[in-house]
Amino acid sequence: MAFTGNDASLARLAAELQRGLSGYVLPPGDPRYSAQTQIDNGRVQLLPALIVLVDSVADVARTLKFARQHGFRLTAKAGGHSAAGYCLNSGGIVIDFSLMKAIRLEGDTLRVQAGTRWIDIYDYLSANGDGLIPVGGGCAPVGVSGFVLGGGYSFASRSYGLSIDNLITLTIVDADGNIRKLSADSTNPEDIALFWACRGGGGGNFGIVTALHLQLRKPHTPTMLVAQLRYRAEQAQDVLGFYNEWVETLPNELACYGIWGPYADPGSGKTISAFGFTCVYNGDAAGGIDLLSPLFKRDPFFSQINNMTLPQFETMVGRSTLVDGRRAYIRSGEVPPKGLTSGFVTTLDKFMTSAPSQDTFMVWTHAGGVISDVAMDATAFAHRGARFMPEIKAVWPRDDIAATRTNVEWAYNFFEELRPHFSGAYVNYIDPLQTDWKRMYYGDNFERLLSIKHQADPDGVFNFQQGIASAFEPDGRQPLDLSPLNRTFVE
Ligand SMILES: Cc1cc2nc3c(=O)[nH]c(=O)nc-3n(C[C@H](O)[C@H](O)[C@H](O)COP(=O)(O)OP(=O)(O)OC[C@H]3O[C@@H](n4cnc5c(N)ncnc54)[C@H](O)[C@@H]3O)c2cc1C
């Protein structure tokens, strides 16, 4: 429920909440309030009644009980990269984890608080990690909490699994304000069920995570071979047709992600629409170059090879896929092995060479490897069979509100044309206009997720527009109803 009282009553409630906290309550007039409402997707501009900068697990439990007592909506914000802005809300309370970023190395595991971002971990491990790496994000400022709860693809996932496959324990505050430690080894069946649901069920659904215990990995070699190659749009059928078959022959140690977007033509200096690959080899440089030679032979107009640690590489490229305060609409799809067919590539070419905004790009994860060795129902993550996970990022300038419909409809139509090729979609690229979203995100795991949700949160404390128990379904008819993009709760 949104707060409907006046300023004086809100100030009284803020003061009451503040008295029991070690962190800070920020009402709208506080000088720190505005910065905390800015998230990666600048299209999302929501104003909560109160933002609470929590400083301890006790702060989280107290804030949750306070929100329940006074009927406030409640959402949690970690890195603030939710594509739809579901970390924020309008008129409710946001639990903001910016102050909770402690990191501790314990042997080959890492304990982190819920506000930690991947860049914090990369910096920490570069100084203290003795070559250990996390199964973490390719984008440095993304929050660990949201990332892990949805699954978590890393450049090292084909070698070591998803982030959730490297999650040892989660500490959460549940819907009643109790602090619970979840793991697969728990003796309490309800904790085991919640742990299952939190591994792929997506952020904001089952409790508020306050800390995560992560398994780290020792890569095969201290540094990895990383290569970036770019090709002209005219080469798409040839190069992507080859790539579609070639990736099936690769060892798990090699991941070749795809990208399509605007690049400077080295000849004319003009911006052209081009595609390419970002490849990371978990092994020695010579072996990596050998494996990648078929891509180099296909005439890229740009190529670059580096030998560096994965955290160094992620820090180097980790801002390139940010929306960074511009406006964006983001969609995703799950593509099975050999799914980048000629028809698929024709659609990519048609839409990417006619994107209405020059800021727009798409990327795709190269999945498989040991990710696919885990059973589909072992965790809530339902996309173990995916080979590629494309994501389109329609991005346009922050001040160009008038361009919203053109860009959203372009991206919508693009992925609707690809829909027959998709077997699902990734909840970490959550899309308020995704029709049939429960099946797309959760496949056959949805019914089990819903039953755990009813058991763990019968009063719907953790609820939002696309929360597990929500009845919301967008209307896919044209012209599209864009209002779901601008709200986080369904009335
Ligand atoms: C530039 C960019 C690059 C990305 N790269 C990758 C990638 O390489 N691999 C990949 O798998 N994904 C990637 N993603 C997707 C990313 O994993 C999701 O956007 C993720 O949800 C972001 O988490 P966050 O904590 O930053 O965001 P938030 O917006 O803070 O949170 C996301 C969701 O989780 C909820 N949540 C946040 N904190 C908590 C908590 N403590 N307890 C419970 N719920 C919580 C929020 O309410 C919200 O619903 C990328 C996204 C972006 C924008």
Structural features, described:
The protein contains 14 helices and 16 strands. With 491 residues, the chain is an alpha+beta fold. It folds into four domains: 90 residues, Uridine Diphospho-n-acetylenolpyruvylglucosamine Reductase, domain 2, CATH 3.30.43; 113 residues, Uridine Diphospho-n-acetylenolpyruvylglucosamine Reductase, domain 3 (2-Layer Sandwich), CATH 3.30.465; 214 residues, Vanillyl-alcohol Oxidase, Chain A, domain 3 (3-Layer(aba) Sandwich), CATH 3.40.462.20; 43 residues, no CATH class. Strand 11 and strand 12 form a beta hairpin. The radius of gyration is 22 Å and the shape is globular. The chain starts with 6 loop residues before the first helix and ends in a 35-residue tail after the last helix. The structure holds flavin-adenine dinucleotide (FAD). Flavin-adenine dinucleotide binds next to strand 3, helix 5 and strand 9.
| Structural class by secondary-structure content | alpha+beta
How many E-type strands? 16
Indicate the CATH class of the largest domain: Alpha Beta
What is the CATH fold-level name of the largest domain?
Vanillyl-alcohol Oxidase, Chain A, domain 3
Biggest sheet character: 7 strands, antiparallel
First and last CA, distance? 9 Å
| Rounded radius of gyration (Å) | 22 Å
Short description:
The protein has helices spanning 7-19, 33-36, 57-70, 118-128, 144-150, 157-160, 189-198, 236-246, 285-296, 310-317, 342-352, 404-418, 437-442, 446-456; strands at 24-26, 50-53, 74-77, 93-96, 103-106, 109-113, 167-173, 179-182, 208-215, 224-232, 254-264, 271-281, 302-308, 327-332, 361-366, 388-396. It is α+β, with helices and mostly antiparallel strands and 491 residues long. Helix 7 (189-198) crosses helix 14 (446-456) and helix 11 (342-352) packs antiparallel against helix 12 (404-418).
